[in-house]
Amino acid sequence: MDDTAKATAGPQAIYERFLAEGRFMIQRSRETGEYVFYPKVMAPSGAVDLGWVEASGGGTVYAITVNRKREGSYNVALIDLDEGPRMMATVVGALTLPIGSRVRARIEAGANPRVVFDPEEK
Questions:
Q1: Other C-beta atoms lying within 10 Å of the C-beta of residue 76
Q2: N or C terminus: fewer CB in 10 A for the chain?
Q3: Are 1 and 18 in contact (CB under 8 A)?
Q4: In DSSP terms, which residues pair with 28 in a beta bridge?
Q5: Higher-pLDDT residue of 55, 6
Q6: 114 and 63, same structural domain?
Q7: pLDDT band, very low/low/confident/very high, at 91 (cuts 50, 70, 90)
Q8: Which domain holds residue 62?
Q9: What is the full DSSP assignment across 13-53?
Q10: Taking Cα atoms as reference points, which of 86, 79, 83 lies closest to residue 101?
Q11: Sorting pLDDT into bands at 50, 70 and 90, what band is 109?
């Protein structure tokens, strides 16, 4: 994405463009080093000098729940990213995992790309 597009788009649009490019990017304050997710214009600490950095992709399951429907079951997990922020996502390849399990992010391509997590091999 070129600098002109970044300057005119909001944080959500920029994040979605990165996903469409196959990149999992999160924000980080240049001054404080604080990582931020979900994309926003200001960090929880009040920092407004947010830039985009590639996420490492590593994380730990903080919480997970299974939603059961007639069409099939799926999970919703809270993942603590290695950088610090917590995000909501789906863990694929396992319906449930123990709290504290290590997971690895990847981008699920499609009309609306999204970040999903796979369990890490021990």
A1: 13
A2: C
A3: yes
A4: 35, 51
A5: 55
A6: yes
A7: very high
A8: 58-119
A9: HHHHHHHHTT--EEEEETTT--EE-S--SS-TTS---EEEE
A10: 79
A11: very high
